[in-house]
Amino acid sequence: MNNALAQSLTLPGDASVQGPIQSALGGNFITIGRIISGAIPFIFVFAGAGLFIMLLASGFTFLTSAGDSKKLSQAQEQLTNALVGFLIIFASFWAVQAAGIIFGLENITNIFG
Q: Is the pTM of the predicted complex or chain greater than 0.70?
């Protein structure tokens, strides 16, 4: 899509510009959608790395609790938070994919394809 303006534009002073105007960039406009589409794979990589680090941290806290109920409950809370965060990210991905399929939005379903 190389067109930036599809109709005529009247400027002050009786000047006008006839559309469509060709883009100097060849239609490669930077939009929020392109930025988000490019960032999604990186977000999932960072989310997976964060899950792994949180699982290691909670496991380490479990191992070093030495019967201390406070540390044990802290480790359980860390593990629960890590898994809930992962489930939220996983469910949001599948919800967006389902919405893309239902509404026929091919760009959404082809992000990882």
A: no
